[in-house]
Amino acid sequence: MGPRGTGKSLWTQQTYKQAICLDLLQPDVFRTYSAHPERLRALVDGHPDKTVFVVDEVQKVPDLLSVVHGLIEEKRSRTQFVLTGSSARKLKRAGVDLMAGRAVLTHLHPYMAAELGEAFRLRSALDIGLVPLVVGAANPHEVLASYCALYLREEVQMEGLVRNVGGFSRFLEAVSFSHASVLNTSSVARECQVERKTVEGYLDILEDLLLAFRIPVFAKRAKRALAVHAKLFLFDTGVFRSLRPRGPLDHPEEIDGQALEGLVAQHLRAWIDYAKGSHQLYYWRTRSGVEIDFVVYGEGGIWAIEVKNSARVKPEDLRGLNAFQQDYPEAQCVLLYRGDETLKVNGIRCIPCEDALRAIHPHRKLF
């Protein structure tokens, strides 16, 4: 599973070069298999010499899951199915749990800085994001501008996920103000002039389309009264930039701060998925307003991470980390900032953000 443009199709082509591939984005293939999903069985039976079958964008024809399930149950030990998808909406309705215990679920994310190596530039990543489709484009800004329109047309409108596509478009714009912030659905509903329940439904669609994710409050063995609402992030900084309206009252440094926090969030999320551990991503906020942007908790340890879009470390920047360390002395506390030097201030490591992002690698311990 992974959003459009993250390279699922290219990865399958490079990894399974001898496989038979069904691309359900092709109109003729889609028509054939949506009308007769059992045709997949005939295809497998007709190629006994082939061991791998790839079904690209399987959510277009969810009934194929039942066929794959049936073929797996027949104990065809030599046959492997590779299914890719960019939306979980229809798969949930079709009963994706049919595959439970019979399939390995993995997620593909935008590029990590470690993947790009020397080609990674923080300023560029904050501007256009790290979706491979955008990064590799001749004109990334044009591709980015049409990216969400692609989802609206091919996933939302064509699949009939919402009755009012215009209302959903307004919601996308309004929800961009909540990126990297505690989510207030009532406020978003007022902005869109729709009911709160409608916004909650739109948020579910956004997450099912893999365009956004929420992180909960870290409350394990809590010693203070904590906030209860989750934080919302769009899955890629460039997508956030393309959706976020800008005008005379919008301060560039505020948008930059949201973009930087989102960029760190998508790296932490990718590290958690790719490292194959049992870590989870949270944030921490007390009811009195003391906050830490991210908490990564799991078998490898506990990390508290604060992100600041400033070139200098100020004492107030460490307030949340100091409070968290009092409650959780075993935590490793890190401040990521826009300066050039790695420092240690009051026992807390302060690392230049670009250096920290380059160092986040699935085969290494976090920080």
Provide tags for this entry.
367 residues; alpha/beta; 2 domains; six-stranded mixed beta sheet; three-stranded parallel beta sheet; 16 helices; 12 strands; 41% helix
Estimate the helix proportion, in percent. 40-55%
Coarse morphology = globular
Instruction: State the domain count.
Output: 2
Q: Which oligomerization state do the chains in this entry correspond to?
A: single chain
SS-based class: alpha/beta
Q: What characterizes the major β-sheet?
A: 6 strands, mixed
Order of helix and strand elements from N to C terminus: HEHHEHEHHHHHHEHHEEHHEEEHEEEH
**Side-by-side strand order of the widest sheet:** 7-8-9-10-12-11
Distance between the termini: 27 Å
Number of strands: 12
Q: Radius of gyration, Cα only, in angstroms?
A: 22 Å
Regions with pLDDT < 50 over 5+ consecutive residues? none
Mean pLDDT over all positions: 91
Strand content: 15-25%
Number of helices: 16
